[in-house]
Amino acid sequence: MLGGTFDPVHLGHLRSAVELREFLELDRVHMIPACVPPLRGEPRVSPEQRLAILRLGIGDTPGLVADPRELHRDGPSFSADTLASLREEVGGQARLVMALGHDAFLRLADWHEPERLLTLAHLVVIDRPDFEAPLPAPLVALIAGREVADAEALMSRPAGGLLRLTLPSRMAISATEVRRRLAEGRSVRYLLPEAVERHLMQHGLYRY
Ligand code: ATP
After folding, report:
1. Closest protein CA for atom 28 of ligand 1
2. Model pLDDT for residues 59-75, shown as the tens digit of each residue
3. pLDDT tens string 19-47
4. Does any domain span residue 203?
5. Rounded to the nearest whole angstrom, what is the distance from the C-alpha of residue 158 to the centroid of ligand 1?
6. Which residues lie below 8 Å from residue 168, measured CB to CB, with a gap of 6+?
7. Read out DSSP for 39-68?
8. pTM value?
9. CATH number, domain containing residue 86
10. How many structural domains compose the chain?
11. Cα of 174 to ligand 1 centre, how many Å?
């Protein structure tokens, strides 16, 4: 699972998903847009539109799935509930991974039921340029004893481990910067898939 606001999806998300799948030899990566992200302001674009843009961005990429499940739930989109529904689908013995960027990881102890996340899945933290602050104390306590050295150790169990990864194409792309550029009428070429750029331009999204 790679959850996010995807407001909009960009190549930092998509390339990370592809490299994550290769590195951990995952069957698939479910990219799951939050309907109502609990810890941030309302996204600029509706959940349905963000999902449609995500679908365009994924296109025919093998192993990446635009997963609408958080749009079907009311209330805040808690990742613990999403992981519980994935766990129910794949069964107790499958390896389930929740991937997140280092910036999101830094706030993990403030998420809803953070301990439950770790009973349901492994955490894989993707290194991201510009987000290198030290870990807050509650996060250190949450992950104590969980960190493993490599993918093999992580994948020897269904859940509960933590692996930090630096993917080969570490990208300094953020949706904040994409939105800023669009609002200023500047180029977003090569930050987003071309189909996504075309869609945003055609519909005038993020322009104001
Ligand atoms: P914003 O700038 O609006 O906060 P974002 O670019 O961080 O957005 P999100 O949709 O919030 O995008 O991110 C979803 C997940 O993808 C988070 O776990 C985030 O850390 C991760 N992520 C986002 N951009 C990158 C990137 N360039 N490299 C690796 N991980 C990323």
Report:
1. 12
2. 999 999 999 999 999 88
3. 999 999 999 999 999 998 887 788 889 99
4. no
5. 25
6. 19
7. TSPPPSS-HHHHHHHHHHHHTT-TTEEE--
8. 0.96
9. 3.40.50.620
10. 1
11. 6
